[in-house]
């Protein structure tokens, strides 16, 4: 089945540790995205990538890093520089172009204590 | 950041009643308007992508209209059922191949 997967579903980390969230898609989509959701807020864009080996900062990129070495994969690293890392993280992919819907993964809930 | 507003933020609907809610967005440089449904414990799923002023799209009991000149879209649910309980997100593109999302309309259908 085609789709987009994220792992793990829940992740717990101690403050000061970097953590990497996985996102994989087999939809052959060029574009991939990382969003963060906090209570009472809409989805906020962290990073996005339109093609392999290229990515751009979104609206809240500080404290995060990404890579796009393969078309299928777009991992997100939450670094210790991110001041409020506890949140729900959603990955999405789409055909390139703003008229195309985005397909979302199931999300990872990260808790940092 | 593009300002996409949704109202009301939450609403409770009696089963069988119809309801609607609004997404407003800047009308200048309009390209497309996306609606997604996000059920609890599931991933957001696309309902509609709308591009033409005056467009109306329908999926089962859910429909949406678009007014690009005044910058709003309505989402309608006809004869609400418990399975319609979800958060409905709208989003509009801004910048280069990216979407700006509203905060969502949280719908609870009461049996």
Would you write up a description of this structure?
Chain A has 113 residues and is mostly beta strands. Helices cover 0% and strands 49% of the residues of chain A. Chain A has strands spanning 4-7, 10-13, 19-25, 31-37, 44-51, 54-57, 64-66, 76-78, 87-94, 103-104, 108-112. Chain A is globular, with a radius of gyration of 13 Å. Chain B is globular and about 40 Å long. In chain B, the strands form 2 sheets. In chain B, strands 2, 4, 5, 9, 10 and 11 form a 6-stranded mixed β-sheet that branches. In chain B, strands 1-3-8-7-6 form a 5-stranded antiparallel β-sheet, with no helix packed on it.
- What is the straight-line distance between the termini of chain A? 36 Å
Summarize the helix and strand pattern of chain B as letters.
EEEEEEEEEEE
Number of strands of chain B: 11
Question: Biggest interface, and residues per chain?
Answer: A-B, 28 and 25 residues
Q: Report the radius of gyration of chain A as a whole number of Å.
A: 13 Å
- Tell me which oligomeric state these chains represent: heterodimer
Number of H/I helices of chain A: 0
Shape descriptor of chain A: globular
Shape of chain B: globular
Distance between the termini of chain B: 39 Å
Number of strands of chain A: 11
User: Helix fraction of chain A?
Assistant: under 10%
Report the order of strands and helices of chain A.
EEEEEEEEEEE
């Amino acid at each position: 089945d085609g789709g987009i997967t994220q792992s793990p579903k829940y992740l717990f980390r101690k403050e000061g540790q970097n953590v990497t969230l996985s996102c994989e898609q087999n939809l052959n989509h060029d574009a991939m995205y990382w969003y963060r959701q906090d209570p009472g807020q809409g989805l906020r864009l962290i990073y996005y990538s339109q093609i392999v080996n290229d990515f751009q900062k979104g609206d809240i990129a500080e404290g995060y890093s990404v890579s796009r070495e393969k078309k299928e994969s777009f991992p997100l690293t939450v670094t210790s520089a991110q001041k409020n890392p506890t949140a729900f993280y959603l990955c999405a992919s789409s055909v390139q172009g703003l008229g195309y819907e985005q397909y979302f993964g199931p999300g990872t809930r990260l808790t940092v204590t | 950041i593009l300002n996409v507003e949704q109202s009301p933020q939450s609403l409770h609907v009696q089963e069988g009643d119809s309801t609607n809610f609004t997404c407003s967005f800047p009308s200048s440089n309009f390209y497309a308007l996306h609606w997604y449904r996000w059920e609890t414990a599931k991933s957001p799923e696309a309902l509609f992508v709308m591009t033409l002023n005056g467009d109306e799209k329908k999926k089962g009991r859910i429909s949406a209209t678009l007014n690009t000149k005044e910058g709003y879209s309505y989402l309608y649910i006809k004869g609400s059922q418990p399975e319609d309980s979800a958060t409905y997100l709208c989003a509009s593109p801004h910048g280069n191949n990216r979407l700006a999302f509203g905060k969502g309309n949280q719908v609870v259908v009461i049996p």
